[in-house]
Amino acid sequence: MEAVFLENAGVWPLSFLEGEMAARRPEGDVGHGREAFAIAPETPADVPAREALLDRAMGPKRKRKSSEKLRRGRLPAEGLAFVARGPDGSLVGTVRLWDVRLGETDAPALLLGPLAVDPAMKGVGIGTALMRHAVGEAKRRGHGAILLVGDAPYYARFGFSAEKTGRLSMPGPYERERFLALELVGGALDRAHGVLKPARRNTRSEALARAA
Ligand SMILES: CC(C)(COP(=O)(O)OP(=O)(O)OC[C@H]1O[C@@H](n2cnc3c(N)ncnc32)[C@H](O)[C@@H]1OP(=O)(O)O)[C@@H](O)C(=O)NCCC(=O)NCCS
């Protein structure tokens, strides 16, 4: 069974995905389509499965990361939380981006993470599709830069590097060579320096207040 939709992973209706999988399946192949997936916006119903997947993929220490200080009690940036779903609709990948401020300059930027893929589905392109979709959508929405703490050899393929993070820092322990950035607008990080801060708005309590 070949992997499908890796080139142009977007928001594919699952009915379309299933039709396409069936169309591509060679006659007599009863493969279960492990490699097929679709990228979609995260919904509130995805939260329990997303948390379970993060526990499986990253372990219990995941909440001690310095990035968590910029995420705790907040909501992801508007329209920038995505999941990957398998053919049966189950959640097999997650990525979210968060509004942050760049230290002394206070300029807005995004923090990406966590990115995680179901360990049983690693290596079929889900992480890549989630990253490409998230970066593309952040750019479309007019954001200037994305930062993250992660493995440079993985994120380099999406254009991330430590080149522009030398004068920035995270609000907690982290490994400097893993602090990476991608400019979506050329020069967006040229003057950036200081410690990353959470953006002032977009807290969970404000969202609850709006919903009340
Ligand atoms: C890292 C992760 C998101 C990658 O997702 P994935 O769907 O397996 O990745 P893809 O299928 O899109 O890409 C696979 C490629 O990435 C490479 N890769 C995967 N993890 C890597 C890493 N940590 N460092 C360098 N390369 C890595 C693979 O070797 C493979 O390379 P190839 O294309 O040359 O064969 C996934 O393995 C995961 O959830 N890991 C645990 C959580 C985690 O570490 N999250 C990221 C924080 S840095």
In one word, what is the shape? globular
Percentage of residues assigned to helices: 25-40%
The number of helical segments is: 6
By CATH, the topology is Aminopeptidase
Q: Sketch the major β-sheet.
A: 8 strands, mixed
Q: In terms of structural class, how would the helical and strand content be classed?
A: alpha+beta
For the termini, the CA-CA separation is 48 Å
Please, could you describe this protein's structure?
This protein is an alpha+beta fold and 212 residues long. It has helices at 14-24, 47-58, 66-71, 126-140, 152-155, 204-211; strands at 38-41, 81-85, 91-102, 107-117, 145-149, 168-169, 179-183, 194-198. Strands 1, 2, 3, 4, 5, 6, 7 and 8 form an 8-stranded mixed sheet that branches. Strand 2 (81-85) and strand 3 (91-102) form a beta hairpin. The longest helix has 15 residues, at 126-140. The radius of gyration is 18 Å and the shape is globular. It starts with 13 loop residues before the first helix and ends with a helix. The structure holds coenzyme A. Coenzyme A binds at residues 57-58, 115-117, 122-128, 150-151, 153-154.
